[in-house]
Amino acid sequence: MLRRIRNRRDRELVPTGRSISRRRGAAVLDYVLALGVVLPLLAIVLPMSRRIMQLVFEMTCTLIAWPFM
Predict the structure, then answer these.
(1) Is the dihedral of CA 54, 58, 61, 63 positive or negative?
(2) What are the pLDDT digits (tens) for 2-56?
(3) Which residue(s) pair with 2 in the sheet?
(4) How far apart are CA 21 and CA 50, in angstroms?
(5) Residues forming beta bridges with residue 3, ordered by sequence position
(6) Which of 6, 16, 21, 26 is least surrounded by CB atoms within 10 angstroms?
(7) Which H or E element spans position 21?
(8) What is the pLDDT of residues 42-55, one digit of tens each?
(9) Where, by residue number, does the polypeptide cross the bilayer (predicted)?
């Protein structure tokens, strides 16, 4: 999983006793998932939530008011 520090420049950049991780691009995948998956889902769900709240309100009013009609 981890590789040893081989050249002198890397030894200067990384503190003693540490090694460089192979997961250099993992953070980029997190951003791609957030931008490519979560944001489109939010774009779909947020407009629908207003309609759902309106329908719940209407249903609640109907259930409360029907005995008096």
Answers:
(1) negative
(2) 555 555 555 555 566 555 566 667 778 888 888 888 888 899 999 899 999 999 9
(3) 21
(4) 45
(5) 20
(6) 16
(7) strand 20-21
(8) 999 998 999 999 99
(9) 28-46
